[in-house]
Amino acid sequence: MADIYQSLLSSPIGRQLLTAVSLPVPVELDRHCQSQPSFITGNVLIGGAANGRLTDVISKSLAASNAHVQVSQESPSKDAFDKAADKAELKLTIIDPNAEAAKFKGLVFDATGIENSTQLRALYDFFHPVMKKMQSSGRIVVLGLPPESCKEPAQQIAQRALEGFVRTVAKEVGKKGAVAQLVYVTKTAEKLAESAIHFFLSPRTAFVDGQVVRIGKGKFDTTDFNWNQPLKGKVALVTGASRGIGESIAETLARDGAKVICLDIPAAEADLKRVASHIDGSVLPLDITDPEAPKTIAEFCKKEFGGLDVIVHNAGVTRDKTLGGMPDHFWDMVIDINLSSEERINAALLDDEILNEGGRIVCVSSMSGVAGNFGQSNYATSKAGVIGMVNAMAPILAKRNITINAVAPGFIETQMTAAMPMAPREVGRRLNSLKQGGQPVDVAEAIAFFASPASAGANGNTIRVCGQNLIGA
Ligand code: NAD
Fold first, then answer.
1. Less Cβ crowding at N or C end of the chain, within 10 Å?
2. What fold, for 235-465?
3. Which long-range contacts (CB under 8 A, 24 or more apart) does 83-92 make?
4. pLDDT by residue (tens digit) across 178-231?
């Protein structure tokens, strides 16, 4: 379904009209495309509070970009960044961020050195002079310490305060199509932050906004890692791959180098074959609620590929009705497809060790699972259960060097949302900081981030791909 509002905006008269009546004017978001670098370009200002722990990993990450990296002459972390940049062979320019002509595509702030609320002033000092100098589709990343890992209450309080700061900054820069995220990095997991810095500073995060991600311990050496083909040599299975978000996930994982097994119900086989043929993938027509499905999947992966590296649980359905009027088969079907079948498939892949060492399980939850939604008690329960599954299994899987994470989409432009009545569809589209719906590829990019071998430190996270929807946290 065409975004009529967006079409109106693309005409000068329509744009003038909407601006005159103070309606939101969404900007066109930068997204990753093959012909452009997958990492940030343009001016990136880095800084931090004194005694930050992440100057090395920030410098190393940015050394791999084509960005023009700058540090403020006033920054308390200037000397630390100078040293780190030398080590990483990063060309660092010293600038005055107050200069009128200064403009920034990216801002990166290391807040790990903040130990108490007074020191939060470092955020103001860094961001205040540059907030009005953010460019369209800019990227902001603040890095902190997980509050629960801080021994001193004063530090725990200050680190927790970063969430309110980042979520607000995201709301303030949203009108420019810019996004802001908070990455909490556990002590001793510093090197593993590289994957998150790459992702959150890239055009791949067009519709990820105001999110908090935790990076903990994990096994991965990024030396000589190919950031452009992170899944080279890996085998990934995507459920519900015949259309919509699943199709985009299959394409994105294939773009990143994976051999993709495309799974969907037998009735969707023709579309499944179409998707698989574009990406040189395999086809597995199967209903995931079939009692034999876990065994069939395990045997297929073992026989065809000797195992599996990534499974993406994307297949999902809605059967909406308010609870009082909901027939029991609506309840049973939604819980079985969206949640129970995923548990059964995971069990089969893990019990038979089909999921290889370093394996990745990525689930698709939903904003309904985060905030609830009228008429979706079955769907919201299943999608909140998916978040529960991620939380429950992450520590267990960590022992096997396997991660599990989820992505919770908000309003994404698919057949599902095109079928909505116009009024709720328009409201759904606009009620976020970016004032527009997301694209299936935005969900796929977040899944590819979790699927990457370099994301070994990301385990037990749920990130929303919702443009910072105003509903929910
Ligand atoms: P879609 O309906 O276009 O695609 C879902 C796919 O899952 C279909 O191809 C369908 O055939 C497949 N599927 C359903 N039941 C199956 C079964 N039993 N076995 C195998 N395959 C099965 O939906 P979409 O919009 O692309 O959504 C994909 C995922 O994203 C779903 O989990 C959905 O709940 C979630 N999601 C979507 C949105 C959105 O705005 N579109 C928002 C939040 C969450």
1. C
2. Rossmann fold (3.40.50)
3. 83/55, 84/55, 84/56, 84/58, 84/59, 84/60, 85/59, 87/56, 87/59, 88/56, 88/59, 88/60, 88/62, 88/63, 89/63, 90/59, 90/60, 90/62, 90/63, 92/46, 92/59
4. 999 999 999 999 999 999 999 999 999 999 999 999 999 999 988 889 998 999
Pick 24-215's CATH classification: 3.40.710.10, 2.170.130.30, 1.20.1560.10, 3.40.50.720: 3.40.50.720
The protein residue whose alpha carbon is closest to atom 6 in ligand 1 is: 240
- Enumerate the domain spans of the chain: 24-215, 235-465
Q: What is the pLDDT of residues 373-425, one digit of tens each?
A: 999 999 999 999 999 999 999 999 999 999 999 999 999 998 878 888 888 88
Q: Is the CB of 244 under 6 A from ligand 1?
A: yes
The residues carrying an active-site annotation are 379
Query: Same CATH topology for 24-215 and 235-465?
Result: yes
